[in-house]
Specification:
CATH superfamily of the largest domain: Periplasmic binding protein-like II
Number of domains: 2
Number of strands: 10
Order of helices and strands: HEHEHEHEHEEHEHEHEEH
Number of helices: 9
Distance between the termini: 67 Å
Strand content: 15-25%
CATH architecture of the largest domain: 3-Layer(aba) Sandwich
Structural class: alpha/beta
CATH topology of the largest domain: D-Maltodextrin-Binding Protein, domain 2
Low-confidence stretches: 1-9, 15-28
Length: about 280
């Protein structure tokens, strides 16, 4: 009698253990990405990665600075495996806080070393140059300023568009701060605020410049290239101006990805970073 009662309980125990094992395997077969890249792009990347590897991707979208601050607050308790962002200053912050683990050397080797973390804690995925988009019907390239700092001068009032709340603007300000110091940076920003029309994002800046609503605007080159691809040559009435002589206005901003030191699926996260720098992703 006791044996006949014991067998079902033993079987039940085996079923429970098997269920827990399956649940653990399912968890190991997915990663959580805190994403500060464009949501549409990230969704396409995640879908393709899942098809290629069988590793599920759960995405939490947000602004880069907000997600980085959240990761600092969560610390070792974060559910995130990967942080993927448009701007390197946020990656540097997490690196300084000791929250990142090393990226596989083979993944780092795909990207020129100058675009990666010197410590190997994050990998650069794309590089975008800060430029001026200008309307070719309103101004000639020869009339554009030789330096980004000139945009704060009175003669440019009402002629420029900027998107200070866009994630791409902060690295530019950080570069000016490192080069000129706080006082000169504040003076430049005040002049820029006086002269500029404010937009929500770089897409708004370049679209307005292209249709002639603004003479010129500070953007990353990616946004003009995307608009040009959408409109074609005939409907594109703008062009890009690249600052010369090493001017800070031609800053190259690196977007990148990192793996959290407390990641629940480090292997899956490493595979995701490997995918991000692969020829297939590009």
């Amino acid at each position: 009698m006791s044996q006949s009662r014991w067998v079902p309980w033993r079987q039940l125990s085996q079923v429970v253990m098997l269920s827990l094992s399956i649940a653990a395997s399912a968890h190991a077969a997915s990663i959580i990405v805190y994403n500060a890249q464009h949501e549409q792009v990230m969704n396409l990347l995640a879908k393709d990665f899942e098809q290629q590897t069988g590793i599920g991707v759960k995405i939490r979208n947000g602004k880069g600075s907000a997600l980085a601050a959240q990761l600092v607050t969560e610390g070792a308790n974060t559910p995130a495996d990967v942080y993927f962002t448009e701007s390197s200053p946020e990656l540097i912050l997490l690196e300084e806080k000791g929250l990142l683990t090393k990226v596989d050397p083979a993944t780092l080797a795909v990207i020129p070393a100058r675009f990666n973390s010197p410590m190997g804690d994050w990998v650069g995925v794309t590089a975008r140059e800060s430029v001026l988009a200008y309307n070719t019907g309103k101004i000639q390239a020869s009339q554009l300023p030789p330096s980004l700092f000139d945009l704060a001068k009175p003669e440019w009032k009402g002629k420029i568009g900027i998107a200070p709340s866009d994630a791409d603007f902060l690295p530019l300000v950080s570069a000016v701060l490192a080069l000129k110091g706080q006082d000169q940076t504040l003076q430049w920003l005040k002049g820029l605020k006086t002269n500029a029309q404010i937009f929500d994002d770089d897409e708004g800046v370049v679209a307005t410049v292209n249709r002639g609503g603004m003479v010129t605007g500070v953007i990353n080159d990616y946004y003009w290239a995307r608009l040009h691809a959408e409109l074609g040559d005939k409907a594109t009435r703008s062009a890009l101006y690249h600052y010369g002589n090493g001017d800070v206005g031609s800053l190259v901003n690196v977007s990148g990805a990192a793996i959290m030191k407390s990641a629940h699926n480090t292997d899956g996260a490493q595979q995701f970073l490997k995918y991000l720098v692969s020829e297939r992703r590009r």
